[in-house]
Write a structure and sequence with these properties.
The chain is an alpha/beta fold. The chain is built from 20 helices and 17 strands. The protein binds adenosine-5'-diphosphate-glucose. In the C-terminal section; belongs to the trehalose phosphatase family.
């Protein structure tokens, strides 16, 4: 085990998430090559220096044979990762089914699947059974590796059943759970057939965290209305047992972005992009291609702006970078063709022989290209219909020290609560309002841009991912586990 500066053994933090932060490619029967993804959680947890971190999760590949499993586990161990092996049927029912077809849309206010969407993956009940089985498999792996004194941090809507499984295994285990999506109003949440069982399981954790105070409040009211438990300023109480519920807004590793902007290859990218779009203002959208991101609504608002402002038509370009995700879910395939159709129509309508108003890319960009794009952007357009936080808005702000561009941000993204004073907030469903905001942003005075940017930049550089992780983990570590309290009395 690692030691800290005073030579003491560091406490271990077991981070459990559906996906490990690696992508694994099989090279031979017993050999794998691994690529660690540098984004989000990984850089957040690099900041938590007083703990030795271990990752537990699914590697994203089906490995049916034992030789392959053993080889993968060995390769992952070098990266401090521990695999949970899920077979194809479980992935279909648990991941594609219950997680992405039931919980994801419900938590983003899109409601439960109707019959036709459900039919492709059988019933709620069989999906929920698979969800519980999968969560139990995660719990089995955690318990095999758990040592007394470890702190366990469970992530996201995939693992709502995990806190209970872990406490059943060992009630002394310190367990935290954090939700990266919104938690919806209890009026939406209570349509979920397995609503009580999931709430009870989450409440088995010692600390339950959300991005915003609103999500925490929605969760507490779901517990009071559905389970009849008591909501207190500290959290949720049932027969003297308190589960701490609080807001822990995530951030980004802003230094990673500001440092990247100084690299020669990023500056070359910046120069190329400036030349490419000389004489035009650049508007940017970067999203996973997901219905919650409001991409069709955004493009329609841009169309309305062009329609009403002919003088801008050859002076502005919208770059929409949309990385496809969950491509085997039919809803996502439908969204892709819908977006292509709208973009094609608008480019046909307003394009010329030499230029089109919308560049739409269906792919992800590497980190350096992304930083360069953020840096040359005049107006970022983020129109999520619902979004837990939205880190793209933070990344854009981090890269704008020179340009001081404008952020147009959906009021339904968690980030609206932290960047609201600097951004232009919009209701993404109101196409007219978004079109007007585009006009306002493009014409904004340098003074106003500077003032708005200062506010956002100060927030993004002080509320970092590292501070988020540290705050959550230290709050968790400071909780006195109920069982310990009882034994002391
Ligand atoms: P996401 O829905 O994935 O995350 P977001 O917070 O914006 O949304 O993070 C996306 C990340 O992927 C960003 O780091 C971004 O740079 C990257 N990305 C997106 N599109 C890309 C592209 N085309 N090319 C390259 N990179 C791209 C979920 C929740 C959010 C919450 C986060 C963290 O839905 O609301 O903020 O988790 O908790």
């Amino acid at each position: 085990a690692e030691q800290d500066a005073t030579g003491q053994h560091k406490q271990r933090l077991l981070v459990v998430a559906n996906r490990l932060p690696v992508s694994a490619v099989r090279r031979a029967e017993d050999s794998w090559s691994l690529d660690i993804s540098a984004g989000g959680l990984v850089s957040a947890l690099l900041g938590v220096k007083e703990f030795e971190t271990r990752w537990i999760g699914w590697a994203g590949v089906n490995v049916p044979d034992e030789t392959g499993q053993r080889a993968l586990a060995k390769a992952l161990a070098e990266k401090r990762c521990i695999p949970v092996f899920l077979d194809e049927e479980i992935v279909h029912q648990y991941y594609n089914g219950y997680c992405n077809n039931v919980l994801w849309p419900l938590f983003h206010y899109l409601g439960l699947p109707q019959e036709d969407r459900l039919a492709t993956t059988r019933s709620f009940q069989s999906q929920f059974d698979a969800y519980k089985r999968a969560n139990q498999m995660f719990a089995d792996v955690v318990s095999q590796h758990y040592e007394e004194g470890d702190v366990v941090w469970c992530h996201d809507y995939h693992l709502m059943f995990l806190p209970k499984c872990l406490k059943d295994y060992n009630h002394k285990m310190k367990v935290g759970w954090f939700l990266h999506t919104p938690f919806p109003s209890s009026e939406i949440y209570r349509t979920l057939p397995s609503r009580s069982e999931l709430l009870r399981s989450v409440l088995a954790a010692d600390v339950v965290g959300f991005h915003t105070y609103d999500y925490a409040r929605h969760f507490v009211s779901a517990c009071t209305r559905i389970l009849g438990f008591e909501g207190t300023p500290e959290g949720v109480e049932d027969q003297g047992k308190l589960t701490r519920v609080a807001a822990f807004p995530i951030g980004i590793d802003s230094d990673r972005f500001t440092r990247a902007l100084e690299l020669p290859q990023v500056q070359n990218h910046v120069r190329d992009l400036r030349e490419r779009f000389a004489g035009r203002k650049v508007m940017l959208g970067v999203d996973r291609l997901d219905m919650i991101k409001g991409i069709p609504q955004k493009i329609l608002a841009f169309e309305k702006f062009l329609e009403e402002n002919p003088s801008w038509r050859d002076k502005v370009v919208l770059l929409q970078i949309a990385v496809p995700t969950r491509t085997d879910v039919p809803e996502y395939q439908k969204l892709t063709s819908q977006v292509h159709e709208i973009v094609g129509r608008i480019n046909g309508r307003f394009g010329t022989l030499t230029a089109v108003p919308i560049h739409h890319l269906d792919r992800s960009l590497d980190f350096h290209a992304l930083c360069a794009l953020y840096a040359v952007t005049d107006v970022a357009l983020i129109t999520s219909l619902r979004d837990g936080m939205n880190l793209v808005s933070y990344e854009f702000v981090a890269c704008q020290e020179q340009k001081k561009g404008v952020l147009i941000l959906s009021e339904f993204a968690g980030a609206a609560q932290s960047l609201g004073a600097g951004a232009l907030l919009v209701n993404p469903w109101n196409i007219t309002e978004v079109a007007n905001s585009i006009g306002y942003a493009l014409n904004m005075s340098p003074d106003e841009r500077e003032k708005r940017h200062r506010h956002n930049f100060a927030h993004v550089t002080t509320h970092t991912a590292q501070i988020w992780a540290e705050t959550f983990v230290s709050e968790l570590n400071d909780t006195v586990v109920e069982a310990q309290l009882r034994t002391r009395q």
